[in-house]
Write a structure and sequence with these properties.
alpha+beta, Immunoglobulin-like, Serine Threonine Protein Phosphatase 5, Tetratricopeptide repeat, 2 domains, 4-stranded antiparallel β-sheet, 3-stranded mixed β-sheet, 12 helices, rod-shaped
Length: 378
Amino acid sequence: MKKQVLVVVLVLAFSGLAFGQLATVSGKTNDTSGQPIVGATVELQSLDTGQKYTLKTDKAGKFFSVGIQPGMYKVSLIKDGNVLFFFNKVQVTLNDSDDSPNRNINFDLAKEKSGAPAGQALTEEQKKAVAEREKASAENVKIKGLNEKLAAAKAAEDAGNWDQAVNIMQETANLDPTRDLLWARLGDVQLGAGKAAEKANPDVAKQHYTKSAEAYQKAIAIKQVGAYHNNYGQALARNGKPKEALDEYTKAAQVDPPNAPMYFFNAGATLTNESMSERDSALRQKYIDEANLAFDKAIAAKPDYAEAWYQKGLNLFANAKVDPKTNKISPPEGTAAAFQKYLEIEPEGRHAEEAKGIIASLGETVQTSFKKGKTTKK
């Protein structure tokens, strides 16, 4: 393979050379890892006469000679018979000061490997390009390592090894705390661990939900993403903070309008759940009304959102009045229509039989025009 040369072209002005005077030449050599190249040959071949001088590098990779005829030379670095690289058109002069070009013919294979063209110093543009390549290379190595850890965490999560998944993601997020995705994934895993522990150990579940919320906060501080706000809201809701959760669902809808229906649905679900645990009837009704407003927003943004229609129908049905004499059920306006709409969208959906039963209990007739194939998934 052809080797490229990293050199500094020496262009010097000189005059008054006396015939027969000899110049001093010296320099040093380094391999691609920055270590000195020991026992190599430095060959200077005159471009005028063809005469050659050969020098050997010492234990420090340095070479030196005081017997070189001034002139223009090709200077090659040779190791085990192979030319590693060369300098072309190097001017050797009688200037014998320590900063003379003759005293600084340095071979640096690390720079040569970086892509500097033969016989030329790196320009500022080239230096920038090299730095960008090195940065990109290092970034690719880092990303590969992070992806491997993400895959390991996912495997542990899928296997139900929540403690392992949490530990892997915590370590991964700490490796590069500037990446919002890593904090968000840590939040996801903590949220999953909380759900898994909820029945057996509510206190442990609450700890996971708290840590999940903290992880999502860090992700959001780096980047505003609708899914982050939504999942943060989930963690808050499960930790008994419905008001804060609703704020996050609203922010999610603002940040990510295309997915607003889902965020509004989650807000409605949070309010519905809160109403079920509320003993004060007035406050309970307030939560139900607010939940249905959220479901209405989800439906307005996505008219075929079957689950939103069904949940709205359930909330309306919960407010139905029963005549103690006739046992006739009088639901709020729109109750039967909500369930009918659900069946229209998902005639064979998972709530289809419940929806039909509720419609029948209201004395309404279930429409029979709903056919298989008309289902629209949310």
